[in-house]
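Forum > Structural Biology > Help requests

Title: Can anyone predict the 3D structure of succinate dehydrogenase?

Hi all, first post here. I have the sequence for succinate dehydrogenase but no way to get a structure on my laptop. I'd be grateful if someone could post the structure tokens.
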Amino acid sequence: MTVLNSKIPAGPLAEKWSNHKAAIKVVSPANKRKLDIIVVGTGLAGGSAAASMAEMGYNVKAFCYQDSGRRAHSIAAQGGINAAKNYQNDNDSVHRLFYDTIKGGDYRAREANVHRLAEVSGDIIDQCVAQGVPFAREYGGTLSNRSFGGVLVSRTFYARGQTGQQLLLGCYASMNRMIGQGKIEMHERNELLDIVIIEGKARGIITRNLVTGEIERHSAHAVVIATGGYGNVFFLSTNAMGCNGGAAWQAYKNGACFANPCYVQIHPTCIPIHGEQQSKLTLMSESLRNDGRVWTPKKKEDAIKLQKGQITANDIAEEDRDFYLERRYPSYGNLVPRDVASRAAKERCDEGFGVNETGKAVYLDFKYSIERLGKDVIEARYGNLFQMYEKITASNPYELPMQIYPAIHYTMGGIWVDYNLMTNVPGLFAIGEANFSDHGANRLGASALMQGLADGYFVLPYTIGDYLADEIQVPRIDVNHQEFIKKEKAVTDRMTRLYNIKGTKSVDSFHKRLGHIMWEYVGMARNEDGLKLAIKEIQTLREDFYKDLRVPGDYDAMNIELEKAGRVEDFIDLGELMARDALDRKESCGGHYREESTTEDGEAKRDDQNFTYVSAWEYQGEGKAPVLNKEELVFENVKLTQRSYK
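Reply #1:
Sure, ran it for you. Structure tokens for succinate dehydrogenase below:
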């Protein structure tokens, strides 16, 4: 069992980060040139970290599986990025951002990490403005803000519905500048398949060149994982199909604890499933809930007519519409947090009030805001999102309400890290969505971009120096070291094993089977019997996978199916760990909803007496049950209360 040391600094909450920076070790400019850092992933977390550390003088090697770093999935983020600037003069502050994030995460995040995130949030906006990110502005030229779910102030900076894209372009430009200066060695179309540990420290990675099929060795004094989340374990999610948990899973198999894997976010504002052959779901920005009202019919007979296509939303009278979020949560209304809004939509649909042919959809209606503000204003705010919705659904949201339903989106769980963002494996760091540290059991909207850029621009560049200061005398790591040879062979054996199964079923068929198991039993609502059944079914699926998988194409060349086979193999193992974690946590909190733990009015009910801890799972070897380590969460600055948005 691993002893977890979070390394949270002593002292008052508001002084922990500044005191920590003053106390940790620093590497001089001349010595930075002697040190190599590998960054895996080029989204907002990885790209900002690579650019920042290269600017500081480190030698950086950056890796991504896409054909360009600018295709990282951060580009898909729509609604905005939070920061405690108080530009709206609505009483926002660092403390309020801290408290909203702790509460939004259902009191399952570290106080110190979340407060640091709130502290540096304002610097992120200044950095991105300096890069030329075209944030929306008011008439007078000041940056505009809008509100988001789970808060009562307006602190979300945005660039229409393309915030992630614009932030990533700013980050990508900074990274390209360093590539041009020779400070970043860029490796595109290159996927991490294993991590090399030498004498207890992370010293490199083994990758597969996705164009040539070659296995490559890369060494460094430290390795940073910034590869995002693992939502695609459910097959259907809002993530791009290439998104995977492989790098984080290899970190886990090499000794890094995996924390809170069951904490998965369900996003309430997605276009509903529309066919068996669908490969992913499309997210509609949470920002739409600022001006759209969520409703279903009050009368079940109206819902039945909608499901049969006999009437449209416009045929239902005003008094027959149930604005259920406004009814149930009058203080926050349509802007309750994502987990609350998702469960409320599921409850309405489960009761028979769904509005499409499957009964799995609710309305997001802009009729009222168009009447209040005018179509031009709504078009200026959300025009690109409306256009995207119409192209996908062939329905005009200016004339008919959007149809939405919850879907898998973000993962709050991830690799366990300490306050310095280092895993329990020395020299192995994890940042952004790949780690677990900032969001607890539920992420508030517009906080993913904030955490990714905070980690990459303003946290890791400081904290990695504390580790590397002791590595200055270590010469450049030799890729011919015995551990590199050993790990390369292990990767080759694994890929060969998958390729040579020569069964009858495709990789996608197994991925879809896993997705059905996960959504049914480890999805929006979980219970003990279902989770136990999920573990058994995943184990059966694994046996079938190794017996009947078929990977076509050539082994030693570009082979997309072979890539996917390795990723799905990881997803199968990860899915089982998620079910184990959900089974162990006999409480409801945030995105983890146990049917056995609910309040009288159907809300999530935490058990602070028994579960105020981080679940950090430790790998024990293939076929062996993992060990659960616990990091107790201590709350000195907030009072633990059952969340209420009423």
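The domain at 482-609 is CATH 1.20.58.100 (Methane Monooxygenase Hydroxylase; Chain G, domain 1). The chain is about 35% helix and 15% strand.
Shout if anything looks off.
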